């Protein structure tokens, strides 16, 4: 199950699990749309392709809440 990380690892922007606009690689490194575009859709950590992260809403989000651990290190 995806962690649904709450922020962009590059700029720190909030990325709510219930909204579109997050991109992830196969290791779940997470970036906002602007940063994914700036990175040419390649993860700087592993070199993997950045893909749209699906949203998690409603009962699924209630039963399986998103991670609260922020990854942005500024």
From TrEMBL:
InterPro entries assigned to the protein according to its UniProt record, in alphabetical order: DUF1272 (IPR010696)
Domain of life: Bacteria
Pfam families on file: DUF1272
Protein name: DUF1272 domain-containing protein
């Amino acid at each position: 199950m995806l962690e649904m990380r709450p922020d962009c690892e590059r700029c720190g922007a909030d990325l709510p699990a219930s909204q579109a606009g997050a991109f992830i690689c196969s290791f779940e490194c997470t970036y906002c749309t602007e940063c994914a575009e700036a990175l040419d859709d390649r993860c700087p950590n592993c070199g993997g392709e950045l893909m749209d992260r699906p949203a998690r809403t409603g009962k699924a989000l209630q039963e399986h809440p998103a991670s609260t651990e922020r990854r942005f290190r500024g």
